[in-house]
Amino acid sequence: MAWIYLLLAAALEIAMGLALKFNDGWTRLVPSAVAIAAALASIYLLALALRALPVGMAYAIWTGIGTVGLVLAGALWFGDSLPWSRIGFLMLTIVGIAGLRFSESGGA
Asked: Where are the transmembrane segments (predicted)?
């Protein structure tokens, strides 16, 4: 269950970042409220995941998934540049996330 909490927390981290893009410096109510709610829910789920997962590994995976998700969302929806070098570094991030996940003792 801890891994489900962690993945949901990471998805909410992405939602928070997207809401921040739309909140126009905290001047738009709905995106601002979504950003705050997503952030709080994300941290809550991360805390639940940390009951069973090592803190450093879980935090790195949480932020890594959020980073990759927001870079890809920025490229797809907002036209952010995605040169080959950035794609390469995203791939390294994904490999690092997978490596952390599967290097957990017992592979659980």
From this structure: 29-50, 57-78, 84-102
The amino acid sitting at 83 is P
How many domains, in total, are found in the chain?
1
- The domain in which residue 59 lies consists of 2-107
Element (H, E) at 40: helix 29-49
Average pLDDT, the chain: 94
Tell me, what DSSP letter sits at residue 51? T
- Give the global pTM: 0.89
Both tokens assigned to 58: 């879980």
Tell me the residue ranges of DSSP E strands in the chain: none
- In 3D space, the residue among 89, 92, 91, 71 whose CA is nearest the CA of residue 80 turns out to be 71
